[in-house]
Amino acid sequence: MPKDLEVAAEASFADFRLSVELALSLQGITALFGPSGSGKSTLLRIIAGLEQGRAARVVFDGALWADSREKTFLPAHRRPVGYLFQDARLFAHLNVAGNLRFADKRSRDRHPSITWEEVVAALDLEPLLDRRVQGLSGGERQRVALGRTLLARPSLLLLDEPLSALDLGRKADILPYLEAAPRRFGIPALYVSHAVEEVAQIADSVVVLADGRVQGIGPVAEVLERLDLQAVTGRFEAGSLLEAQVVGHDQPLHLTRLQLGAQGLTMPMLKALRPGERVRLRVRSRDVALATEEPRGLSIRNVLAGQVVSIESEPETAFAEVLVALADSDQRLRARITRASVADLGLAPGRAVFALMKSVTFDRRAVTRRL
Amino acid sequence: MPDLGPLWLTLQLAAVTTVILLLLGTPLAWWLSRTRARIKPLVEALTALPLVLPPTVMGFYLLVLMNPGTWIGGFWLEVTGDTLTFSFAGLVVASLFYSLPFMVQPLQSSFEALGPGPLEAAASLRASPINAFFTVVVPLSARGFLTACVMTFAHTIGEFGVVLMVGGNIPGETRVISIAIYEQVETLRYQEAHILSAGLLLFSFVVLVLVYAVNRRRPGHA
After folding, report:
1. What's the CA angle centered on A278, arms A275 and A281, to 5 degrees?
2. Alpha-carbon gap, residue A124 to A139, rounded angstroms
3. A105 CB neighbour count, 10 Å cutoff
């Protein structure tokens, strides 16, 4: 069930001004994405009630949490939010179980569907329960903090760059938990991040913030392929997200077969994927080539038919971005090719094309499972 | 055998002062550690005044303030039937002022070192500010509380100038150890002065060693 969140906030800082007005229908994970210093965390803190005295109005699920004009302010401890801090903020005087109990006993009556056992099992916390928090690794700390936050039985999860203090390996360890928790426990989440890879991997929808303002908002695949947001989402890493279904594995050739609409795709075998499972593929625009005829005699195995939607030339460079609507599906793919190729191939909106991608484009990190 | 009366009186005075200052100093230290009010430096300076002021100056003003002719002294006399000056109650009041910085400053720096982090975390886990103070701030500041109490207690035991001005030298009422030692030296009873002085020295040293030892064994606690 989607929960409505309305936020309006104004705040001045030394180097920028936050001016935001948002009405979101929250379901699953909504990313608040933008570069550092764009006001994301401040916005999250305003929603949580940690920024008293700022000009803001917050309404969640019909309840007024703050309205600076009416001098209404619901203190942080009375708002049903769970806040996962960048630095975990576990209580040093309690062990892991003590930290969990701190949240558990203060909210036990609120949301009976979330139980201690369930949270401990979902986050694999059992072996950590008797540990002192000082001895935990960064990844373990965030896992415990996430468990503690869930045991506060919130109606809204606020995740404030929970991965930013971790190294790559630890990030990969904790990301699946972050991704699964909101769905498993039925709590919508706002996820603040400045890493487009994280957003692409776990978010359902995204709000793009830059210079203290909302630049774009919508489903993650749609927003990340918007050319006008590239200054924020990053040109080099720009790409598209494709949703596909696992068909099966080809053991001898070591490939996994996927289906996207009526069209097939292959990728290096990922044994963990099961037939029928839905996955999300991240394809960088620079890894996509275009052809006007179905190519033959080519080593590239992934060829998707489609139609050119739009072409955006990048002045001062050799390149152009071509947006392609894939046949038999509502999904879109973005290709970055040279402007010379656009002219040679006579590409124009409406033109039928074939998008070519090497199988290796889809490595382990480009694929995420969908529930 | 020397008269142990001054010893008990001193311990009593230090204990009462420490307990009362713990109750008064904790909210003051908390306020100082959080506030952005413009009068904060003013309050901080007032709190620190006893550190730099000659005890006789403090004692003199307290004596003036507490004498039965003033409204404070008069009020006390009316309510209790006893004067505030030259009494145990007067000593306690004077000690509260004199030892205030020794309670407030360690607590304040301990609270400041904590930062807003743990409190914000507690609030996001449904703990009210009062509840968060007792379940998070107090245990995380245990070291600060221990230091503050021990410093206050020890400092009150060593008090001399203010006591002499406000309390005089009344056996069983205001004759604390430091006064007793002073008197013994004045009357050339060095033997007795030695016993009390050495006892005080030993006591102070043992207490400090214990404090440092406890602090060392609990790393990770701010």
Report:
1. 115
2. 12
3. 11
- The Cα–Cα gap between B133 and B30 comes to 10
Q: Tell the burial category of B55 from Cβ atoms under 10 Å away from its Cβ (0-12, 13-18, 19+).
A: middle
ipTM greater than 0.95:
no
Separation of alpha carbons A306 and A106, rounded Å: 55
For residue A22, the distance in angstroms to the closest alpha carbon of chain B comes to 22
| CA dist list (Å): A350 to A261, A290, B218 | 20, 14, 71
Relative to beta strand A55-60, strand A3-12 is: antiparallel
Q: Which residues of A129-162 are buried (b: 16+ CB within 10 A; e: fewer)?
A: eeeebeebebbbbbbbbbbbbbbbbbbbbbbbbb
A53 to A19, A71, A72, A190: CA distances (angstroms)? 15, 9, 10, 22
Kindly report the nearest CA distance between residue B124 and chain A, in angstroms.
6
Hunting for tokens 């309006």 — which residue is that?
A8
A85, A89, A131, A149, best to mutate vs chain B, most B CBs in 10 Å: A89
Helix axes B55-66, B71-80, angle to 10 degrees: 60
To the nearest whole angstrom, how far is the Cα of B140 from the nearest Cα of chain A? 6
Beta bridge partners of A189: A29, A157
Residues A93, B142: C-beta atoms closer than 8 Å: yes
Substitution target from B124, B130, B136 for chain A, most A beta carbons within 10 A: B124
How is residue A249 written in tokens?
A: 């594995």
Nearest-Cα residue of chain A relative to residue B129: A77
Which residues from chain B sit within 8 angstroms of residue A49, using beta carbons? Answer: 123
Report the amino acid identity of residue A243.
Answer: E
With 0-12 CB in 10 A as exposed, 13-18 as middle and 19+ as buried, what is A264?
Answer: middle
Inter-chain contact B128–A77, Cβ cutoff 8 Å? yes
**Token pair for A96:** 């892991």
A277 CA: distance to closest CA in chain B (Å): 36
Tens digits of residue pLDDT in A103-141? 999 887 777 678 899 899 888 899 999 999 999 988 899
Q: What is the Cα A204 distance to its own chain's centre?
A: 6
Q: State how far the Cα of A103 lies from the Cα of A83, in Å rounded to an integer.
A: 12
> What is the pTM for the complete model shown?
0.76
A193-248 pLDDT tens trace? 888 878 877 888 999 888 888 888 888 877 876 656 666 666 445 678 888 888 98
